[in-house]
Specification:
two-stranded antiparallel ribbon, 10 helices, 66% helix, elongated
C-alpha cells in the first residue's frame, strides 16, 4: 500500500496530479483509511505509468480517454482510440512525404519562370492555391509575400517568384508551421539557395514522428501488461482502518 505522496514520487509527478487523475477516472478509485487518507496499490502505479506512456505517444487527451475507457471495462473503446491515433500519425507521415516531394520539385525548378501565367492578380493566385484572398493578404502582412503594386490602381501583381513562395507557404501552413518558422525558408528561397531551412524543418518533423511512434510502441507494451494483470480482475474498494 502507498500513500498519495509515495505514488506521486514513484512516478515523478505531484500529489495533486495523482488526485486529479483519480478524479478523472484515469486511475481506479483508491481505498481510504478511517481518517480519509488514500491508499494506492501496484495497480494504481501501473495505471499511472500507462497513462504517462500513452500521453507521451498519443497526447494527454487521448491517454485520458484510453485509461477511463479501461476503467469503464470498455477495452474495445480504449483500443479503438489507440487505432485512431495511429491512423492520424500515418496521415501526418503521408503529408510529410508529399511535402518533401513537393520541396524537391520546387528546389529543382527554382530558376524556372511561368511565362503565360504571370504576373497574376490576387484572385488568380488564390484560385491557383485553393486559398482565400484574405490568406494571401495575411501572408503579405507577415512579410512572407512581397507582391508588386500596379501603378495608379495599387492592385497586387504576383510574379513567378511570388507564386513559388506562395506555394511553399501554403504547404507549411498546412503542416501548422508558424510564420516565424516559415519566414527563413522563404528568405532562403528568395536568395536562390538550396532550401536548407525548409529541409531542416521537414527533417525535424520526421524525427518527431519517429520518436512519437517509438513512444506509442512503449505505451502499447505497458498497456498490454496492465490489461493482462489487472483489467480482468475484480477491483473491490476496501476501507482500511
Amino acid at each position: 500500500m502507498m500513500k498519495t505522496a509515495d505514488l506521486a514520487a514513484s512516478a515523478g509527478v505531484s500529489t495533486q496530479h495523482v488526485r486529479n487523475l483519480e478524479a478523472a477516472g484515469v486511475l481506479p478509485t483508491a481505498a481510504r483509511t478511517a481518517n480519509g487518507y488514500r491508499l494506492y496499490t501496484d495497480e494504481h502505479l501501473s495505471a499511472l505509468h500507462c497513462y504517462q506512456a500513452l500521453a507521451d505517444g498519443h497526447g494527454a487527451p487521448t491517454a485520458r480517454a484510453v485509461m477511463t475507457a479501461v476503467y469503464r471495462d470498455d477495452t474495445a473503446e480504449a483500443l479503438a482510440l489507440i487505432d485512431a491515433s495511429h491512423h492520424t500519425l500515418h496521415e501526418q507521415r503521408q503529408t510529410l512525404a508529399q511535402t518533401t516531394q513537393t520541396l524537391n520539385a520546387i528546389s529543382s525548378a527554382v530558376d524556372e519562370r511561368l511565362h503565360a501565367s504571370v504576373p497574376m492578380s490576387i484572385g488568380e493566385l488564390a484560385h491557383l492555391l485553393g486559398v482565400r484572398t484574405s490568406a494571401l493578404r495575411v501572408w503579405e502582412n507577415a512579410g512572407l509575400l512581397t507582391p508588386q503594386r500596379l501603378p495608379g490602381v495599387q492592385h497586387r501583381s504576383y510574379d513567378a517568384d511570388d507564386v513559388r513562395d506562395a506555394r511553399v507557404i501554403r504547404l507549411l501552413r498546412q503542416g501548422h508551421y508558424r510564420f516565424t518558422r516559415i519566414k527563413p525558408v522563404i528568405e532562403e528561397l528568395r536568395n536562390a539557395r538550396t532550401g536548407t531551412a525548409l529541409r531542416s524543418v521537414l527533417e525535424e518533423r520526421h524525427t518527431a514522428f519517429t520518436a512519437r511512434a517509438r513512444a506509442m510502441l512503449h505505451a502499447a507494451a505497458l498497456l498490454d501488461r496492465h490489461l493482462t494483470a489487472y483489467a480482468a480482475r475484480p477491483r473491490p474498494i476496501v476501507a482500511y482502518t
